[in-house]
Design brief:
CATH architecture of the largest domain: 3-Layer(aba) Sandwich
Number of strands: 19
Largest sheet: 6 strands, antiparallel
Helix content: 25-40%
CATH superfamily of the largest domain: DD-peptidase/beta-lactamase superfamily
CATH topology of the largest domain: Beta-lactamase
Structural class: alpha+beta
Length: 454
Amino acid sequence: MTGPDRPTDELSDFAELMTHEQEFASSRDLDPGVRRRRRRRGLLITAVCVVLLLAATGGYIAWALTAPVNPPKVTSQIPPVPAGAAASIAAVPASSSAISISGADEYLGAGASGIWSSSGTGDPLPIASITKLITALVILDAVPLASADDPGPTITFSKADHDLYDRYYVLGATIAPMPTGTSMSLHDALAAMLIPSASNYAEALSSHIFGSQNAFLGATRDWLSAHGLTGTTITEPTGISPRNTSTAADLLAIGKLAAADPTIAQIVATPSISLPGAGQLYNTNGLLGTSGITGLKTGSLGQGTYSLLYTATLVVGTADPLAVTGVILGGPTRESVNGSVLATLDSIRTGFHEVPVATSGQEIGTITTPWGSTAQLVVGEDAAIFTWSDTPIVATMDIETPPTYRDGTVVGSITWTAGPQTVTAPVEIKGSVDPPSEWWRLTHPAELGSATGD
């Protein structure tokens, strides 16, 4: 069907009348009366034909000007999805290292809060003064303090305790003053042991709490076993012995236990402290307060054995800061260990970034019509997605048919997804699609007909 039924029937009647008119013309040689009658009939037929022709034409015009047209053709394509820059985690020049990151498993992968990255050997290595962190944990397991501000019981040091100063001085260990008869709280004695890493305080305090070194070592073995720390061996409380060893994996677990204890967490985050009898004491961890580092403990037995068990709070743009626990064992120098820690934390921090995925006005499609009116589909606003490293970014687009195709009309959206993050931008029409002109309708019946489904 190419138009209304009635105009077609009227055209057929017109053709029949024209045939009669031709017959009339061929009969001019008939009787004048007959000719007059036929002429009148011919004029009548002609008038009728004109009326029918006008009726048919009027019907077509009315149909053409009101017939539906096919909707504009919309073509669109998702804009190319960029890839984020791959993060490059700094290498650690040491015998062993490991790092754990809590609060970012959705970005870094399941298990990041266990051991996210490691290097070197997984075998036990000397841990030097990191031992004192274990000594503090074992002591507080036996004599818990209610809070970080709880002083705990008072410890009074004897002449035998004072003599430890000279013994550890001869051994070349770190020491702090401990005059005979000095009294201090358990909290402060732990601070004297951990902040300057005083070996004489480690032995004196562990002996006071457990009664003897044998009792302390027995309690330490029980504590290690209870926490599943099978890769750790402790033979004395200070770390001066190279037989005090542990693995990077065990030390990450020990570091988390220490950070969770409010007393230890407060002490190891203290850059310096002044204590009666002990004087002014300075933390051996020179990285405190740098790059979010909050602790924990240094260790060294000389060249090539520099170690650090550390915690840090990293602000990277996620909902909450990341909690980092890391360890380096057997670094060549203190400077190299500190530099590796800072480089590692910086590479993690910069690995989180915003990746631009679209710009406002970016063309992503076209709208075309048979009558030549066109417009564009564009992204309605700038869009960027927060992600980690080169996590794949996936884009999806949803376009709907609008009631009108006018400039600025929102016709859909594009959504980008990367890990746990999503971002959405509107898709808009740029330009307007005008309706077909009357002339185009009158001269393109086929296109009108196609819209009716015939």
